[in-house]
Design a protein that fits this description.
alpha/beta, 28 helices
Length: 715
Amino acid sequence: MPESLANAVAAAAADQAALRSSQLATIFAETGTLASAIPGYRPRAAQEKMSEAVANAIADNDTVIVEAGTGTGKTYAYLVPAMLWGGKVILSTGTKNLQDQLYLRDIPTVRHALNVPISVSLLKGRANYVCHYHLERAQANGRLASKQDAAWLREISRFAKTTTSGDKAELAEVPENAPVWQLVTSTRDNCLGSECPNYKECFVMRARKEAQQADLVVVNHHLFFADVVLRDTGMAELLPAANTVIFDEAHQLPETATLFFGETLSTSQLLELARDTVAEGLSHARDAVDWVALGAPLERAARDLRLAFGRENARLALGQIDADPRIREPFHETLDALDTALSDFVEALESQAERAEELEQCHRRALELAQRLAAWRDDRIAASPVPAAEPADDAEGDQTSQSFQTSQPVQPAQLGPETVRWVEVFSHTVQLHRTPLSIAPIFSRQRAGQPRAWVFTSATLSVKGNFTHYAAQLGLDRDRSLTLPSPFDYAKQGLLYVPRDMPPPQSPQFTEAVVERALPLIEAAGGRTFLLCTTLRAVQKASDMLYDLFAERGINLPLLVQGQASRTELLDRFRELGNAVLVGSQSFWEGVDVRGEALSLVIIDKLPFAPPDDPVLAARMEVLQKKGLSPFAVHQLPHAVITLKQGAGRLIRSETDRGVLAICDTRLVEKPYGRQIWQSLPPFTRTREADTVIRFLEGLGRGEAPASESDTDSE
């Protein structure tokens, strides 16, 4: 390009950038567009700066990573430029709850303020929509586990006749985790597609069609990556048409992408296949074979594989299994038996498949699962990935089993040579995983091709403003990033407390010491506490101790514990009670927003380092060591910092919130790397004196202003 032409192009681009900046200044001004239309709106410089960065990325079909501290207003910051200049926009969030919040509240608010005629669609995974076919089958079957399930089924039946979306989130009368939902929704495995007699009325198809026609489509990360791998979620046609892709809660992407770019087979899938085959066989070819007898060996073999392990949940690399004679022989024997049972099942079903489309589909599923098992057993074979179905919003890897779905084949080159085979054991299922050690090459290939804007944003993406770790995981350019601080005055609004004289985190007495230090703080705060633990075992031990201590000392505070109810129910009760103590694990470290006096104290038991014996982490550490890098500095430490920032972010949610963040791990102040960690946290006033914390919390209870930094023992 001639220099004169290049200069003209650059000048035009600069003029356009200046025009966009001027428009955004008007929109975000104190008396501007948003302030005029949204009650209580207040301008924030960081919000406008983020909006400019997103607008520039859209204009240049570029990528930008934005860490926006709590209170920045990042949702409006990306929605404004997306609605004005984004073209076809895909907005992906961390959870279905956030999807609903965006679709029902934030997007309508901004669209009304800007007065732009854009159409918006909400798209979820198929398991979120009532399936007419499976609803009718469940009603005809009549075999339900309880009277409660029967009552819920009647509610769902009435709902299906009146709803326009079929989205189960609209039916509050039936809990989202009710078992009956599995009977009335479809998976990729058991969906009949265009062969379904209810295809024209299908809620999933209707949602996909609306998404095709919408200007802005709200999805979640699981659905986005399922599409990248499966091309079966309705996104297959959406992504090529998109001009802009925005990831909110983008800190979750590496883990979600790893899950979907890997390969997984679970015994739950095999049990579901056997049950579906028996049901379809009895419906369409009752007298052809003894269907119950046909499915029984596969069900038995799948259950026997789970029995090869002890009672405890576990995550084990294949090498760990082979090194332990107590597990090695039972595991490989039951795996051989499962292989044989699945092969026999495929062969028996082949002769019956032509009797009905439903049986043909079961046969195809069985063939795919047999391929997965063969691929996992022989690491030289590249199989199709089997990504997880989207978990419930409170699902947690170390607590709940997740069902998995099969997929269309992916080229072997997509996985690459560096993978690890491992086994995850839950209370009722076993999952066989093959996981890529780096998803950066895979994700980079997916982003290549048609030019479009990519926006990655969250409150926690960097370590002291350094994006190296996050960018490396996804193959992004760390220099295309910016950090925007929170507008909150953390030094005045809160304290960071690290107690003295704590035992080492690995000590058997550690959780007891945490509870002992926590109890006087909980009393001073009048409840209003989150106690966040890094393991479920610690959750159970801490809650048991608190129950006993509350009873012994006559402390009349409600105690809520993860597992008693769904996360949503527990949080609703916590907010309503106003003086509760909630003990939880990873589910409550992020995506939780409790504003005001209901939450004044967040206690974190220890720094959230991933266990070094985790099979995927161990394999990644080994690769880093071979490259001459420090696994701790390059991977473990930055990952722990980002996770800790999420937990710390639960405390101060508005300009008027005040409280204490207590981290009971003395490594934060005693280890050389501790400074890097606490300097990445919000700039709370710091103290190690319990008395200072108790006075602060008691002052909050009396409505007093927080202590200034000079009144505390900051170090």
